[in-house]
Amino acid sequence: MEGSCGGGGGGGAGQMAAWQGRVGATNIGRLRHGKTSSSSSAAVAARGGGVTAWHLRVFAGVVGVMGCLLLVASLMMSAVHQVQFRNAAISRSFRGLQELKQNSVRTEEAEQIMHPRLLQMATSVVTKNESDSDSVKFSLWEEPYKQARKWKPCAAKHSLPDEVPEENNNGFILISANGGLNQQRVAVCNAVVVAALLNATLVLPRFLYSSVWKDTSQFGDIYQEDYFVNYMKSDVHIVKDLPPHLQSLDLEAIGSQITDMDISKEAAPSEFIKAVLPILQQNGVVHFLGFGNRLGFDSVPVHLQRLRCRCNFHALKFVPEIQRAGSLLVQRLRRAGAMRTEMDKQLFGSNMLDVPALLAGGEPSRYLALHMRFEEDMVAYSLCDFGGGDAEREELQAYRETHFPTLAMRLRNTSVSPEEQRSLGRCPLTPEEAGLVLTALGYDRGTFIYVAGSQIYGGAARLRPLTRLFPNLVTKEDVLSSAELAPFKNFSSRLAALDFIACASADVFAVTDSGSQLSSLVSGYRVYHGRGRAPTLHPNRKRYAQILGEEEGIGWGGFERRVRNMVEEYKRVSARPRGRSVYRQPRTPGCMCRAAGDGSVDF
């Protein structure tokens, strides 16, 4: 580009001018040597020709220069626009957390602080963390145990025939999954296993409308239907609709509707064979209404456990629209172009957008994703006290009456102690408590943090202690423009998919609520596809509550040491413990293999 606009005299326009100059000079030379007519009119014509050639050279040169200037200006404007676009969370006004942060400055006197002594010490320490050695800073962003790299994904392979035969099929299984994006994902993969277990055809899952999530999205709005059906065809037969002769049946009236009340939580496969298979064989169809965590983990044989992992880690791909928006989100967080890591390939496939190399200068930036599950529904359901007094208790009780009527009714007859809930580790971490953990681990004030689940209960007043420690907080609303988010507006599950992508792709993922499905699924996804290079910070809420309960008697050094030990324990690499979710901890037979020598074995 520079060569054509520099010494070359303006590319094609410059070459044309040079050619015209050479032709003009040759003609004039011939005239002067008498090789043409010597009449005065011919001489005048020759001089006129020379003048005309000179004007043409000048004109062509000017056009060439102007063309180069316009091209350079266009490139510069494009670069500036893209840099601003990519760094929108820093260089432009925020639309997400920034609005809360600005509001919190105006209402600082109303900020809600539960641990003032620790917060004061942390405010001083978080700045000192910036002076830590490079080796210490490096350890904050790396998986500490090399054993994690010995575990490889193994669910992609299967041991069944190339395609499941349709003969001897016992009928159709229809599921209507409740909850949000992540609860529904679990329900889908559990349904795949149940369909295979009962030798049935699975109808593409349907999603129930929730008064909490308020999202009308169906399977095909979030996941690629054809990819899912084709990927799983060797394991279970999947169709998009019930056949016409079954669509008109009243499934509840004929006894084919199965609710969560009919199946035990985390039931063994034998319970499905005993309770569901006879209905399926009799009526040809069974409808699981509200199907979620109805299938256990420990009692499931290896070949069915593999199906679970094939579904969750391989078959469920977000639709291209979500993949493209997610790739744009991640690249702006990294401030770099497409990296094509294994995680990128799994999340985006062929829909990874490429940022021009011109705009992707320097090394990619690191970012930490924090799932701040401190939203009103979680806060209300936890039955914990967060220091807001009577106003907070009345507000949360009103929310329970509307959204959790069964829980609200139970509270009328039973007394629940918020203190006991906290001591048992059942309270989600506040933004303040999350900030104290990150500071104790050694993250400094400049750490770039992506916050998932950004509708913080309590707003600016509750967020302020965290932003005091870590001001570089962003959400998807900060990084993506309103136009880019427009297709997902009013669809909470599709927005949650963007959070899933940003958290799965992060250099470090920090969990604040072990009961959250997003935290569980993202943690497992990072273990499975992270190749041992995707660390997750997972505080033990019960132990953390004990530490915070003794805060008046410990200094910062003691607090820091105990928090680091607490988080370190979760990072240790081991096979899935009994009773734990395969979705969170996929290091289990049928799902992941542990390398032994030159090969890989399940165990």
Q: What is the approximate shape?
A: globular
Structural class: alpha/beta
* N- and C-termini, Cα separation: 57 Å
Proportion of residues in extended strands? 5-15%
Helix run count:
28
- Low-pLDDT sequence parts: 1-48, 71-94, 104-109
What value does the Rg take, in angstroms? 32 Å
How many strands, what sense, and barrel or not for the largest sheet? 6 strands, parallel
- Let me know the average pLDDT: 80
Q: Considering DSSP H and I runs of 4 or more, what fraction of the residues is helical? A: 40-55%
Tell me how many strands there are: 14
Q: Mind explaining what this structure looks like?
A:
InterPro entries: FucosylTrfase_pln, GDP-Fuc_O-FucTrfase, GT106_glycosyltransferase. It holds the Pfam family O-FucT. It is found in: Membrane. Its main location: membrane. Among the domains are: 112-126 and 138-151 and 319-374 and 428-594, no CATH class; 172-315. Helices cover 51% and strands 8% of the residues. Strands 2, 3, 4, 5, 6 and 7 form a six-stranded parallel beta sheet that branches. Strands 10-9-8-11-12 form a five-stranded parallel beta sheet. Helix 22 links the parallel strand 9 and strand 10 (473-474).
